[in-house]
Amino acid sequence: MTKDLTKGNETKAIISFAIPLIIGNIFQQLYNIADSIIVGKYIGASALASVGSSFTIIVFLTSIILGLCMGASVVFSQCFGAKDNAKLKSSIFTAFIFIGLITIIINLCAIFFTDNILIFMNTPQSLFNDVKQYIIIIFYGISFTFIYNYFCCLLRSVGNSFIPLVFLIIAAIINIVLDIVFITVFNLGIAGAAYATIIAQGISGISTAIYCFIKLPEIRFKKCDLKIDIKILKLVANYSLLTSIQQSIMNFGILLIQGLVNSFGVSIMAAFAAAVKIDSFAYMPVQDFGNAFSTYIAQNKGAGEALRIKKGVKSSFKIITLFCIIISAIVVIFSKQLMTIFISPSEVEIIAYGSQYLCIVSVFYFLIGYLFMFYGFYRGIGSTNISILLTIISLGLRVGISYWLAPTFGITAIWWSIPIGWLIADIVGISFIKKFVRNINK
């Protein structure tokens, strides 16, 4: 099942394609949220801090793989929009080999340098062994992350955002059940949460790959298709590496912030771990909307539909603004109640710090919503270098302000650095889009 996003009403096309992505990512987030809730409730605040600290490292490494897959999917979408099936087949095979080899290298390096990574992250000695135990198990499942993200990006590039959702729902349910069984029944502690996650990831990844091989004619290869086309390799590498750089810069900045947060002690670490989960879950729909928007832009670029791209930009601004106003109000009003999902109500200090973070950052969700839209737009038209620039501005300011002001003004400086980074990046991003729209009008 594929979907041509170059036809029909622009707003309906984007929303109908984005909804399965959003629902799917809700279940994707349940992997880590389930770990955090069960670990926080049944093991304690220290274990929650360990999982939260590990999460930042894991997201950084997997973001490199995700960025490679997302970049390759832009090539797939453009070929699909242009109806060039031969080039599509060649790019699918070439990208799989290319990204697969990089994944193997990342996996080996991550396992070999685990201690060095944890020392760089200022991991407290009291948590060091727990964090290492959890993270090593997750690292062994990185290949499943590649398989799942590659085939999901392939499906989405040809307009199918529903099937990845189905496999994610199944995997999320398995993950939650295994979390409960491994932690509360078998008493495996933090390791049980890690085992539950990689088993669920493995199931979703392998299931998605099998579906693609059975249902997608685009990957029914003949012998003549199983070769690396150097020209296409350069094209895929260009898109993939630039997108991966953008994703890794984004998450490396977050990694540096996590290192700074770790220096404030276990209570702040636990508060940050819970608040960031709520934060990322709240604005996750606009992140997925940006990814759907990227596919919409890429297909229409391949089809030469510049006016349709302009209309899609206008519709997206309205949708993002409305959603973010609603979700910001919910998070501000219920910030303390949301924190108690992850931590016992008796942990008053942790809840207070987490609630403070949410009340500052959530007011500005519309800024990150626009930024995700800009990322999708520039990735879709092939100007990934602009996405990288926006990421450097956003995260560079966030890290710089945090490290500069936190020693004087405390943890609050880290919270305020986040919307400031979003705002400046948005100003730059919108100036480039205005230039693009002016060219269309001419």
Automatic annotation (TrEMBL):
Keyword vocabulary terms for this entry: Antiport, Cell membrane, Ion transport, Membrane, Transmembrane, Transmembrane helix, Transport
Residue ranges of the TM segments: 12-31, 51-80, 92-114, 134-155, 162-186, 192-214, 235-257, 263-284, 317-335, 355-378, 385-406, 412-433
Source organism, top-level taxon: Bacteria
Protein topology in the membrane: Multi-pass membrane protein
Keyword Membrane set for record: yes
Single GO MF descriptor: xenobiotic transmembrane transporter activity
Subcellular location(s) per record: Cell membrane
Main localisation: membrane
GO cellular-component term (any): plasma membrane
GO biological process, one term: monoatomic ion transport
Record family assignment: Belongs to the multi antimicrobial extrusion (MATE) (TC 2.A.66.1) family.
Annotated PANTHER family: FMN_FAD EXPORTER YEEO-RELATED, MULTIDRUG RESISTANCE PROTEIN NORM-RELATED
Function per UniProt: Multidrug efflux pump.
Protein name: Probable multidrug resistance protein NorM
